[in-house]
Every structure is written in C-alpha cells, then in structure tokens.
C-alpha cells in the first residue's frame, strides 16, 4: 500500500507532492463513504485518538471529531480551558498522562509555534497539527486545495489570491506551501501592515489593490481579520478595511469573469465578505466544510496505517 513520506502531519512544508496526491485519492474514497446512508467504516476500530485543543476552536474540532467517529476510532476530547494546564502542568506532562491511557494519535491545536514538532520529539504517538500559533494549519490547506481541485479539476496552473490578514494567519502559510507544491501561482492581498515582510521570499507576489488581485485570480481565498491575535491597531477602522478589502457582489459582477470564492471560516459577514457573496453560487464555502471531514479522515487513516501493533 502507498504510504505517506512523513510519520506525523506537522505542517505542509514537510510533505511532498506525492503525499498530497495520496491524501486526495484517499479523501475521494472517504467522500463517497460519507455520502452513503451508513456513513461509518470500521477502518480504525482499534485506534484511540485524543483531541487536545489548547486554543478555542469549534469548526476544526467538530470536523476532526466527526472524521474520527466516521472511521470508528475511540475518541477522547481534552480542552485546556478546564484543565490542569491552568494549574501549571507542562505540555509534556499533560500529553504523557493522556498517552498513558494508550492513545495512538494526538490531534493538537496550540497557541505556540512549533508545539506539534516539540511534541513529536517527546511522545510516542502520531501527531496531527490542528493549528500552531500563527504558523501552520495543514489540514485546512489540504481541504482548501482539495476543494479547488474538485471545483476546477486541478490546482496546477491556477491563480489563487489569499486576501486579508496574512500576518496572523496559519491558514495562509499552509495554503501557500500546498498550492505551490501542486503548481499553482499564489498572490496575497491586504493592507501592507497585515502582510509579513518575508512573504516574497516564499515566491509569492504582493498586491495591495483588491480589484487588480481579483481580476488576476481564478480563486479568491478570503481570510477574516484576526482581532484576537492583535495587540496593536493594524488599520484605522473595520469600516475602512471593508471599503478597501471587503468583497461584495457588485465587485464580483464588475469583473467580467466568474471567480471561485473560498473562506476557511468563521466568516465576519459584512466585513471581509458580504452575505450575498458568501451564499452565492460562486462560493464553495460549504463544500470546504464537507471536504474537511473527508480530508481529515484520509490523513488520520493514512497515519494510522503506520502504527505498529
């Protein structure tokens, strides 16, 4: 059987093009499964998975949990807000306590960059990074690429613009890595204060004019402004941000071509994107949510195949 070249999913930067291809082929199979009347397969009946969320998350956590249950795994949910972490327990102690319950796979979201890599060096379990700080969010990037492939037939040669708060976004970085691995062209667009200085070193062009960015692209992946990660003001007001970088139906109608609209959620309706755009036939936002379950099933399944019994 084909295998991933990695032992954990810590970030897209550790994957190669064959890994992405294998994940997508596996996800195709699971997408068919979750659209059946009986949506479960017994593939991981003897596997125990712990979801460790040290940061709040609703959609990612639900998506992983559903993926795990569809594969018939045993699931433990741990949320740090109500836990011993508040009492000063270290990350390794927390995880080792959970692993002593004979856990095979850990899905972790953590506020610190590199937390997943740190953990993979210290504990004996497969680690899936569900977001580390402002660094990477690999399964989101995989489901985004998978959704583009499903809508447009292929990612190769497509022009993708990522719009919004690039500086605080783990989605942006993972998407850039994933899209480039598959041969897409990538630009970013947003206020210069929200675009990191190093971004051009990744082979990404910066466009500060929204209209030009939309005229260039096939797909616009719109990110929300992450106010919760901001300790200073990066732009004068939300209203001004919306005037310069918000997407509404009128802007799309004036493009003279149909582009695909994506959003990793949660959406600030009326800020980065209006409701009529989010709910339009150009939007594949709900497909992204559905594909998230299939892609996460694929990642979990492929990593579980490497577990030695």
UniProtKB/TrEMBL annotation:
L-aspartate binds at residues 87, 170, 224. Signal peptide: none annotated. Pfam families: OTCace, OTCace_N. Keywords: Pyrimidine biosynthesis, Transferase. Carbamoyl phosphate binds at residues 59-60, 109, 137, 140, 265-266. It is an enzyme of class 2 (transferase). SUPFAM superfamilies: Aspartate/ornithine carbamoyltransferase. Pathway: Pyrimidine metabolism; UMP biosynthesis via de novo pathway; (S)-dihydroorotate from bicarbonate: step 2/3. Residues 8-150 form the Aspartate/ornithine carbamoyltransferase carbamoyl-P binding domain. Residues 156-302 form the Aspartate/ornithine carbamoyltransferase Asp/Orn-binding domain. Its EC number is 2.1.3.2. InterPro entries: Asp/Orn_carbamoyltranf_P-bd (IPR006132), Asp/Orn_carbamoylTrfase (IPR006130), Asp/Orn_carbamoylTrfase_sf (IPR036901), Asp_carbamoyltransf (IPR002082), Asp_carbamoyltransf_Asp/Orn-bd (IPR006131). It catalyses: carbamoyl phosphate + L-aspartate = N-carbamoyl-L-aspartate + phosphate + H(+). GO terms for molecular function: aspartate carbamoyltransferase activity. Belongs to the aspartate/ornithine carbamoyltransferase superfamily. ATCase family. Catalyzes the condensation of carbamoyl phosphate and aspartate to form carbamoyl aspartate and inorganic phosphate, the committed step in the de novo pyrimidine nucleotide biosynthesis pathway. NCBIfam families: asp_carb_tr (TIGR00670), PRK00856.1 (NF002032). Heterododecamer (2C3:3R2) of six catalytic PyrB chains organized as two trimers (C3), and six regulatory PyrI chains organized as three dimers (R2). This is Aspartate carbamoyltransferase. The lineage of its organism: Bacteria, Pseudomonadati, Bacteroidota, Flavobacteriia, Flavobacteriales. The gene is pyrB.
């Amino acid at each position: 059987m084909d295998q991933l070249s990695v032992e954990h999913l810590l970030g897209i930067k550790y994957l190669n093009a064959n890994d992405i291809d294998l994940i997508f082929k596996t996800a195709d199979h699971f997408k068919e499964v979750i659209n059946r009347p009986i949506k479960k397969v017994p593939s991981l009946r003897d596997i125990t998975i712990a979801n460790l969320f040290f940061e709040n998350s609703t959609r990612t956590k639900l998506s992983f949990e559903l993926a795990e249950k569809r594969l018939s795994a045993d699931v433990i949910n741990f949320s740090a807000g109500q836990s011993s972490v508040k009492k000063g327990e270290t990350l390794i102690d927390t995880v080792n306590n959970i692993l002593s319950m004979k856990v095979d796979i850990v899905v972790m979201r953590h506020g610190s960059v590199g937390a997943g890599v740190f953990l993979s060096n210290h504990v004996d379990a497969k680690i899936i990074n569900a977001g580390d700080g402002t660094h990477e969010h690999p399964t989101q990037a995989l489901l985004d690429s998978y959704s583009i492939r499903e809508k447009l037939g292929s990612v190769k040669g497509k022009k993708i613009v990522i719009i919004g708060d690039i500086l605080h976004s783990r989605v942006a970085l993972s998407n850039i890595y994933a899209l480039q691995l598959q041969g897409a062209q990538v630009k970013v667009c947003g206020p210069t204060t929200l675009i990191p200085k190093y971004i051009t070193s990744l082979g990404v062009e910066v466009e500060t004019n929204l209209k030009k960015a939309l005229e260039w692209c096939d797909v616009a992946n719109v990110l929300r402004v992450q106010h919760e990660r901001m300790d200073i003001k990066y732009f004068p007001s939300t209203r001004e941000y919306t005037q310069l970088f918000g997407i509404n139906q009128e802007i799309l109608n004036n493009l003279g071509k149909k582009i695909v609209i994506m959003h990793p959620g949660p959406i600030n309706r009326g800020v980065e994107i209006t409701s009529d755009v989010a709910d339009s036939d150009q939007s594949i936002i709900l497909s992204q949510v559905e594909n998230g379950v299939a892609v996460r099933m694929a990642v979990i399944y492929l990593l579980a195949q490497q577990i030695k019994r």
